[in-house]
Amino acid sequence: MIDSLFGVYGASGFGREVMPLAANYLNKQGINQENLYFIDDSVEEKEINGYKVIKYSEFKEKKANKKFISLAIANNKIRNELANALQEDGIISWSLHHDNVVKLAEVSIKEGYVLCPFVCLTSNIKIGKHFHANIYSYVGHDCTIGDFVTFAPGVKCNGNIIIEDNVYIGTGAIIKQGKPNRPLIIGKGAVVGMGAVVTKNVPEGDTVIGNPAKTLSRKSLRG
């Protein structure tokens, strides 16, 4: 029986950016690249960038002592559902990062993260599970980030900010620094649009755009 099998869930878009991180990990551990798969239930290709594409059911059926999957799905709702499936099926949520990611001091981050090239996490930061930080994103000091938060490329999250669960922050968004006794808060399930400049709290469920960011739409997450 194979000792370990590895998968990147999502064979289009972001998954193709995550696969090199996965391949690099296996290479450094001396693990055969044939133990690494793309997992996708909708893509028709059988092979992408030299890696076999299989369905999740096929991956589950393969025999191995341990199985690892990185969820390369930007949609945090779908990522949440898949994470629950992994837990039920006894598959380990695989955390991946590029070699040039910078983590300075007192950075705590839970399982299932993907940290792409040139991401910087400075100091005194707490991050929940299944966090995605795409290329050139930044998290400043004394920030708290919840579960299933997604940073698109180039997000600038300055110090003293709280980002609650299931928040999506678009490419190039900038979040103004909060204060030690009054952090800026982005509420659960909020969406920050591409290029937005957030200067004040964002209520849960709101979508904000522009500079300064203003509410485009509002979605109640209660009840």
Automatic annotation (TrEMBL):
Family annotation (Pfam families): Hexapep_2, PglD_N
Alphabetical list of InterPro entries matching this protein: AcTrfase_PglD-like (IPR020019), Hexapep (IPR001451), PglD_N (IPR041561), Trans_hexapeptide_repeat (IPR050179), Trimer_LpxA-like_sf (IPR011004)
Taxonomy, superkingdom: Bacteria
Domain PglD N-terminal: 8-85
Family to which the UniProt record says this protein belongs: Belongs to the transferase hexapeptide repeat family.
UniProt name for this protein: Acetyltransferase
